[in-house]
Amino acid sequence: MDSRIICVGVIxxxxxxxxxIVLSNGEEGDPSDPTNSLMESNMIKAVDGVLYDTNNDNxxxxxxxxxxxxxxxxxxxxxxxxxxxxxxxxxxxxxxxYMVESDDASKDGVYWIFAHEGDLFLAFNPTxxxxxxxxxxxxxxxxxxxx
Length: 147
What we know:
By secondary structure, this protein is α+β, with helices and mostly antiparallel strands. Helix content is 34%, strand content 32%. The N and C termini lie far apart (61 Å).
């Protein structure tokens, strides 16, 4: 009887440790996803290509993905809105911002192209989740990641 209790106890401990490992990996994200190397800045963090507002219960506020070059990012943006408004919001590090309005409201918002540790990224913050000051916070997030 004692050996059964010990065996059940060992199994329970193994399950608890396994659950803790899974939960901690879920918060850190997939180590192979390059967006997970982006630094948290001004209450915004990236995990597995999703941007979260850490000041608002980790509310999802957009997406970010690695791109091969600036042309690939701008081509994607201009395919959504050929009249997107482009502006350079930071020269060093360079951050390019695009204001997009299209026939598909889910793609409307602000896009940013920025570099981090030699890689280029395209971030998107949809209009429907933009709160007060979000454009400024996202611009700061992109600029601060430009190392």
